[in-house]
Amino acid sequence: MFGLEKPAGQLKPGRSGGLPKMASVGDFNVLSSSIPATKVELSVSCRNLLDRDTFSKSDPICVLYTQAIGNKEWREFGRTEVIDNTLNPDFVRKFIMDYFFEERENLRFDFYDVDSKSPNLSKHDFLGQMFCTLGEIVGSQGSRLEKSIVGIPGKKCGTVIVTAEELGCCRDSVLMQFCANKLDKKDFFGKSDPFLVFHRSNEDGSFTICHKTEVVKNTLNPVWQAFKISVRALCNGDYDRTIKVEVYDWDRDGSHDFIGEFTTSYRELSRGQSQFNVYEVINPKKKGKKKKYVNSGTVTLLSFLIETEVSFLDYIKGGTQINFTVAIDFTASNGNPSQPTSLHYMNPYQLNAYGMALRAVGEIIQDYDSDKMFPALGFGARLPPDGRVSHEFALNGNPQNPYCHGIDGVMEAYYRSLKSVQLYGPTNFAPVINHVARYAASVKDGSQYFVLLIVTDGVISDMAQTKESIVNASKLPMSIIIVGVGPAEFDAMEELDGDVVRISSRGRFAERDIVQFVPFRDYIDRSGNHVLSMARLAKDVLAEIPEQFLSYMRVRGIKPSPAPPPYTPPIHVLQTQI
């Protein structure tokens, strides 16, 4: 059997625009359907920078760049302040970035010795740079990454320390309850059927709906049920941002009657039940027409309770490791690898579908895996020397140690296997699932989580056994990603995914949803731009992992371990500003 216990930990940032001279760019795209990402704050310190000044020490500044996925272009995200006369700066200004586990965010930190007030960086002395991903920072022990600064040949440029801290407001949720009194009567027969609609304001003055209460039938004095909403969804973490609440009378045909509205903010609501949180409901049209108009009723906040959610990042920061295992389908239905029609065709100029899927998913997961050693398995082949069929063999030929170093090591072992094994059959998933499950069953304390990536052409032979394996594995700290390559019908894979109907075996249902399936062909870019299409593939297959991870921890009542003590550098005075 192969050993699997190993470390890991890392998270993915999302797209944040860059404004020169701004270290915190906190806006999110209002067109995006997803809730704003978790935000992380990056702190930067350097040690032993190059000294470029003759009579004093350097006056350093740090400039952060992010990389566009498609054209790989570097864009300035923000700058710290300038600190005069030091080779060991601890920059005060932070970078605030959106973070998505499922996306790879490449970062570049450039350092300059500032010689004038000019914002043009070419007018200043270059001190070196450091490249990393946001995942690498978050996935490092204590979310603290220390790396050498490079970029000036023959010179030691010092080191940079970048620390990531998840912003607390991102994780708070509030439990609120409202009631109303003396609302306007809108129905001819009987009273109104009122409900509330909450909107958060955007930077451009527009509003985005963020919550609707239930309808309370036939009353002008409704008491609505308490509801829970994240602070991000309610006000994007800005406590003073306007929250608009509209009151409607429900109509069966969908043409709900507007009763009135009021505005508030998170800060006002957080005062809880008090005279400050009784709101007059105003109908502007009525107010304009009737001189004696007072209001259309009042809405009162009955309760306001803040809850802080533990996040995926809390566990990663506390040392939980993510172990990534790869399993590749070596069955004959893939076609002869020496033929261009084969899904395993070894094209010297381009990755095949298996290679692309492995790289797309693996390059993101590897950031969370501290030793970057991945077990890589194959199934459905006849092995040398005796031609026995195996459904869990080590791609590197070493069953005692199936680990490959990084995704490059996995790719190398995959290509080597193609030259030595014979594609055969049948397509059995259960052995590789059970293989990873044995390791997951041995560490159920929350210190490790296992992700199995199966890349297959989808013609499965052991459906009943696979379902049983998945139902058993749903109790364990593991998730399964299946990428289907080739033209086959993937009905069986959709069934395993369990998004529509929870998977079951012999009358037992899976405790939680742990399988995510995607067909590779949905991501083929007709223009040949594989970079963007593979980023989309990775985003879709990895997006469910943090929630699957948290569902396991919640069900088991496992809290994150405390993070290692934070790194607190000595404070330096900040002076000049660029």
Automatic annotation (TrEMBL):
One GO BP: cellular response to calcium ion
Gene Ontology CC, one term: plasma membrane
Domain C2 residue range list: 20-147, 156-279
GO molecular function: calcium-dependent phospholipid binding; metal ion binding
Pfam families for this protein: C2, Copine
The keyword Transmembrane is assigned to this record: no
Domain called VWFA: residue spans: 323-524
Stored CDD domains: C2A_Copine, C2B_Copine, vWA_copine_like
Keywords: Calcium, Metal-binding, Phosphoprotein, Repeat
SMART domains listed in its UniProt record: C2 (SM00239), VWA (SM00327)
PROSITE patterns in the cross-refs: C2 (PS50004), VWFA (PS50234)
Similarity comment: family membership: Belongs to the copine family.
Function according to Swiss-Prot or TrEMBL: Probable calcium-dependent phospholipid-binding protein that may play a role in calcium-mediated intracellular processes.
PANTHER family: COPINE, COPINE-8
Name of this chain's protein: Copine-8
Organism: Sinosuthora webbiana
